[in-house]
């Protein structure tokens, strides 16, 4: 199993590729797109079959980047709770 650092090396940010959004290295597949597909029912196997060249660690790298991004975010409530 890859370390967090090794997984994150599979994600790159290049201002000339997909407007600088994080993508899976060597592709134009954004982390955002992969997370969206997973959130809407696609499996890692579905994505690997659809996109030649990506591997299970690429999917894990996307999830790890999302987790790290969320852990560094401060949240404000969308709605005030009634007391």
What's this model, at a glance?
The chain is mainly α.
Instruction: Give the domain tally.
Output: 1
Largest β sheet strand count, sense and barrel closure: 2 strands, antiparallel
CATH superfamily, please? Winged helix-like DNA-binding domain superfamily/Winged helix DNA-binding domain
Gross morphology:
globular
Which topology does CATH recognise?
Arc Repressor Mutant, subunit A
Kindly report how far apart the N and C termini lie.
Answer: 47 Å
Based on the coordinates given, report the CATH architecture: Orthogonal Bundle
Low-confidence residue ranges? none
**Helix fraction?**
40-55%
How many DSSP helices? 4
Gyration radius, to the nearest Å? 15 Å
Broad CATH class: Mainly Alpha
Mean pLDDT: 92
Order of helices and strands: HEEHHH
Q: How many strand elements?
A: 2
What is the percentage of strand-forming residues?
Answer: under 5%
Write the layout of secondary structure elements.
Blueprint: H1 4-8, E1 11-12, E2 23-24, H2 31-39, H3 44-50, H4 56-71
Antiparallel strand pairs: 1-2
Helix pairs in contact: 2-4
Report what the structure shows.
The chain is mainly α. It has a single domain, classed as Winged helix-like DNA-binding domain superfamily/Winged helix DNA-binding domain (Arc Repressor Mutant, subunit A, Orthogonal Bundle). Helix content is 45%, strand content 5%. The protein has four helices and two strands; from the N terminus they run H-E-E-H-H-H. It has a two-stranded antiparallel sheet with strand order 1-2. Helix 2 packs across helix 4. The chain is globular and about 50 Å long. The termini are far apart. The model has no long low-confidence stretch (mean pLDDT 92).
């Amino acid at each position: 199993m890859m370390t967090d650092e090794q997984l994150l090396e599979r994600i790159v940010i290049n201002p000339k590729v997909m407007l600088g959004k994080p993508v899976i290295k060597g592709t134009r597949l954004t982390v955002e797109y992969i997370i969206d597909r997973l959130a809407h029912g696609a499996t890692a196997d579905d994505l690997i079959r659809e996109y030649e060249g990506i591997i299970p660690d690429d999917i894990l790298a996307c999830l790890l980047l999302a987790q790290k991004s969320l852990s560094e975010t401060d949240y404000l409530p969308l709605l005030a709770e009634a007391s």
